[in-house]
């Protein structure tokens, strides 16, 4: 009994010491849920886009997410955080979407296509009507690189997109674009965030394939 | 040809210098064991007292192990290389002997060298002392290599190593069924093989904990501490597992009560425990040091 007690104390000490002293425990912040973005994101007019997600561990998984943080008047940053299992699983379907937006006055947590914060904001751009009669969003010259940062590629939102997005917001529903262009199944997201959708990461391997690859590599 | 011959001369010169350092060590040994002055400074008769011979020459093996960690850099000049070896060799001799003195004072706190080795010719004591000499040498060698010619780091690591070794030798009473002090008085050989296995195993584990890359001394010391605690968690698992895999039969199984004590004192039981300790320790080093968990960065 005494030995079991001593062994338990030893294990608790190890876990405690590792947690307190290990350098790997420092530097990566923890995100319990979307509400925790408020403390994490300092700048205003900011949008946080989920660009990658990864889980490590065998029995007890640790979940990491990588975000691109675009602030209106600051440099674009990439941020890696440790998240809760629920938050990570929930947002697997929101890859490439903006999970958090912070304007001067308000905060939004509903997943939406990236750049939704800036649409209709005259500080960032304006609606322009083309020859075909359709009205598209155009960023001001200062923000000309925003479509690249937001992962739009050649896509430019039009007024229909904007109206549809607003109706989804009023219903508190996630919006993936008129033809599901955004999100893990969306063409635009797949083209502009290729790292997550790399073939080798998407491939589900069975034990036979793994064994063949192992023998090829080692013998 | 001339260049090759020159290099050969340098090697012979360095070999002679190492011999001089070992000769110096012989006198340094007398500082910590003044009672052996007569034996050490005169010609030694190995047949007269095998325990004393083993005790003395185990130190020679130890100091050779430590010297093997010092490198000669001939490109910086022969004289400077010899000076470097002289300085670091002298430091090694002092640290080694002080370490041995401290560890043996902890382990043999009830025993006296003169009584056990010179008068009683206790081979069990000599073999345990031999194992200490090898283990301390191996650990001193490891920290000298980790210190990378920095005296401050060497001193910090040496003190740290002494603390860990000091605690580890006390761990023996927790995991062995043999009574150390009583059996050592009885010159029991079972004890020396069991304890020998334990101390060599502990040496392997501690050396593996120290053997890692370091850029910052604080982070390095933290990593060593964590690995040591982790080893303390893993080692009993292997010890229990190996006992379950290789169960032994003692007196009580055969219905002969009172024989357990006698059989535990047999040399076979000493071999058994010693082997368990060494194999458990080696496997522990594998679990602690050889598992690569990787990082998240290849993915991110």
Explained architecture:
The complex is a heterodimer of chains A (219) and B (300). Chain A is an alpha+beta fold and 219 residues long. Chain A has one domain (26-218). Chain A is 31% helix and 22% strand. In chain A, the strands form 2 sheets. Chain A has a 6-stranded mixed sheet with strand order 1-4-3-2-5-6. In chain A, strand 7 and strand 8 form a beta hairpin. Chain A is globular and about 80 Å long. With 300 residues, chain B is mostly helical. Chain B is built from 13 helices and no strands. The longest helix of chain B is centred in the first third of the chain and has 31 residues, at 2-32. The relative contact order of chain B is 0.09. Chains A and B meet through helix 1 and strand 2 of A and helix 11 of B.
Throw out a few tags for this protein.
heterodimer; A: 219 residues; alpha+beta; 6-stranded mixed sheet; two-stranded antiparallel sheet; 22% strand; globular; B: 300 residues; mainly alpha; 2 domains; 13 helices; 0% strand
Please summarize what this structure is.
The complex is a heterodimer of chains A (219) and B (300). Chain A is α+β, with helices and mostly antiparallel strands and 219 residues long.
């Amino acid at each position: 009994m005494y030995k079991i007690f001593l062994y338990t104390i030893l294990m608790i000490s190890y876990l405690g010491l590792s947690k307190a002293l290990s350098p790997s425990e420092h530097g990566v912040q923890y995100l319990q849920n979307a509400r925790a973005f408020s403390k994490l994101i300092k700048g205003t007019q900011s949008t946080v886009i989920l660009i990658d997600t990864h889980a490590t561990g065998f029995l007890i998984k640790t979940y990491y997410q990588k975000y691109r943080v675009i602030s209106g008047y600051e440099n674009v940053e990439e941020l890696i955080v440790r998240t809760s299992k629920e938050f990570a699983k929930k947002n697997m379907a929101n890859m490439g979407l903006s999970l958090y937006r912070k304007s001067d006055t308000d905060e939004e947590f509903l997943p939406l296509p990236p750049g939704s914060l800036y649409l209709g904001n005259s500080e960032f751009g304006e609606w322009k009507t083309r020859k075909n009669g359709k009205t598209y969003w155009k960023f001001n010259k200062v923000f000309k690189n925003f479509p690249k940062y937001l992962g739009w590629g050649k896509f430019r939102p039009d007024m229909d997109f904007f109206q549809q997005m607003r109706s989804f917001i009023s219903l508190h529903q996630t919006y993936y674009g008129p033809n599901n262009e955004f999100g893990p199944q969306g063409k635009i997201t797949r083209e502009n965030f290729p790292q997550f959708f790399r073939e080798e990461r998407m491939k589900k391997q069975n034990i036979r394939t793994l064994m063949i690859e192992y023998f090829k590599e080692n013998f | 040809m001339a260049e090759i011959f020159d290099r050969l001369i340098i090697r012979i010169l360095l070999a002679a210098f190492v011999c001089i350092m070992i000769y110096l060590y012989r006198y340094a040994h007398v500082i910590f064991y003044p009672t052996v002055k007569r034996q050490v400074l005169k010609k030694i008769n190995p047949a007269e007292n095998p325990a004393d011979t083993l005790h003395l020459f185990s130190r020679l093996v130890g100091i050779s192990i430590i010297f093997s960690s010092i490198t000669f850099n001939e490109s910086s000049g022969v004289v400077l290389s010899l000076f470097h070896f002289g300085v670091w060799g002298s430091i090694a001799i002092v640290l080694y002997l002080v370490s041995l003195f401290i560890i043996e004072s902890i382990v043999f706190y009830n025993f006296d060298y003169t009584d056990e080795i010179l008068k009683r010719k206790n081979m069990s004591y000599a073999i345990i002392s031999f194992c200490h000499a090898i283990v301390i040498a191996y650990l001193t060698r490891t920290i000298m290599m980790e210190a990378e010619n920095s005296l401050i780091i060497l001193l910090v690591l040496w003190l740290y190593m002494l603390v860990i070794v000091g605690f580890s030798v006390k761990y023996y009473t927790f995991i062995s069924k043999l009574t150390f002090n009583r059996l050592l008085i009885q010159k029991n050989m079972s004890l020396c093989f069991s304890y020998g296995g334990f101390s060599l195993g502990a040496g392997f584990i501690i050396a593996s904990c120290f053997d890692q890359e370091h850029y910052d001394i604080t982070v390095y010391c933290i990593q060593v501490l964590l690995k040591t605690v982790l080893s303390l968690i893993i080692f009993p698992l292997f010890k229990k597992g190996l006992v379950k895999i290789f169960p032994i039969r003692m007196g009580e199984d055969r219905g002969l009560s009172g024989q357990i004590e006698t059989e535990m004192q047999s040399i076979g039981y000493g071999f058994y425990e010693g082997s368990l300790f060494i194999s458990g320790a080696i496997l522990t080093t594998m679990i602690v040091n050889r598992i690569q968990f990787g990082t998240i960065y290849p993915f991110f």
